[in-house]
Amino acid sequence: MSFISFNSCSLNHSNIFINTNWSYHCWNRYLAITTLRRHSSSVCRTYSHFITDDFLDLEISYNTEVNGVMRKTMIHDI
User: Which superkingdom is the protein from (predicted)?
Assistant: First the structure.
């Protein structure tokens, strides 16, 4: 397994703007990317990318707590 990290990755989609640190974990056919921290937000969110080995299938998910209810949202093809 390899480990790579970089700062200030930005995502802008559907009025969601993320500027955060990412951690890369590579294994087998998949690359999973998970945030280390979310800056300047009172709402806790977890973001993940899952990219197949051909790097064409990109899937982003995040969990957001709204009024005590956890909601999972999938964002595709960014």
Answer: Eukaryota
